[in-house]
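Discussion board: Methods & Data

I've been asked by a reviewer to show the raw model output for two of the constructs in my manuscript, not just the figures. I'm not sure how much to include, so I'm pasting the format here to get opinions. Each protein appears as its amino acid sequence followed by a line of discrete structure tokens. Is this the kind of thing reviewers expect to see in a supplement, or should I convert it first? Here is construct A:
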Amino acid sequence: MAHDARTRPLPGPIAGEPDADVDDGAFVGIDLVLEKLWRLLTSMRFALVLILALAVLGLIGTLVIQAPAGVLADPTAKADWIDQIRPKYGGWTNVMDTLGVFQIFDSIWFRVIAAALVISTTACSLHRIPGMWKTATKPHVGVGEAFFTHAPQRDSVRLDAAPAAALERVAATFRRHHYRTIVEDDGWSMWESNAITRYLAARHAPGTLYPNDLRQRASAERWMDWQLTTLGPAFTPMFHGLVRTPPEKRDAQAIEKSRANTETKLEIMDSYLAKSKFMAGEQFSFGDIVIGIGIVDICFEASRRPRRRGAYLPEAGSSATA
């Protein structure tokens, strides 16, 4: 048997139940006050005002004689001390005493402003943490041409090379200066220049820059990793010493040690290239890109460059340009 029961609102509020309209209004008012307070505490202008106020109080405390420790706790001693400084400040003495000018660093004004500054600094830091975290973990890389056109610090360079080679050259330059490079492709982004080179070669040049043969591909990856773990660390001290250090602060011994270490590592590559046209065999690949860029950036004197390495670079450059 079906039973249909319907109810209707009771007339008037239930005894003991709070008035919803009144509570909603009260909560809205509290939320509004808290929101305004939060905006004030996270305001950079408010923090600057507090810093300026503390600076002014500190200046007053430096220029005006401050009561010695223990005097203020003893009314008699305080009265005697006030009488001693009265000739200096005249009729302003009692006013300054009432305002706490003679005890600036122990005054309620100084303590309140200092506490407000600490709270404001903490609130500003907490307020900016989400944005800073987002910027660090998910940087905004999708920008239009107008961003580069109007950027205050910008430059352009034309590279006569394949896209993957040009990108690796730029990424390697930024990496040496401790920048992280990110590539974006159809809304998907990644970083680490070697990984970017592998990705672009596989996407845009399969079978050429990215060999289909697994052994050739493994050989290219081997030399790419060798450049990162062996050649790069050997060359970096010399690069920093000659390029990023003023002449008067250079460590000649460390530079020479790095140069000799780099030459030793390059001899390994030279012995391999004596038997192979490119790093992965007879075909130019992504392994040659990172190796070639590393070699170009190593500024040896012409007399110190091994013949095999000098012959290798033009071949790699012409292949990349083609």
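Construct B, same format:
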Amino acid sequence: MRVLKAYKKTVSIVNETAIELYKGLGREHKGFLMESNDKDNGRYTFMGVDPEEIIQSDKDSLVITKSDGTKDVRYGNPLERLKEYFDEFKIIKPAGGGGTDFQIILEYVHKHMQDKLPTSIIILTDGYAPFPEEELAGGIPVLWLLNNEEVNPPWGKIARIVV
């Protein structure tokens, strides 16, 4: 069984639109941005870049294109094949354990990615750790994605996850 590291969270975006956040992920990569407005549950957005697999329906089949370009064609009703595809995954929920050091993230970027610096950095955290000086980001925009209302980073953009 394959493992899909995914979970459902609701994010409240502060001072940014979903499109602005998506643009910051890098336009030179394949990506996706899906937005919806559910009358009962509110608006929700899914976004990402460099997917491991791209899933498409093609008349009477489901076509799964892997990141290396290989294709897995599954003939039959595409919706039924999609359900079967998702049944192949074991869904796990990530768990934290403390020990966050934000400075290491920024140092790594500048030490190992000088030839191709990211257009932005998104850090998912509870924020209970010392924040590095803004200068360490070297001008790269940082989005702090926090799961609480208590912590307020001293710099960068902030979005919050409502659990």
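Answer (T.O., handling editor elsewhere):
This is acceptable in a supplement if you add a one-line summary per construct. For B, something like: Residues 102-112 form the longest helix (11 residues).
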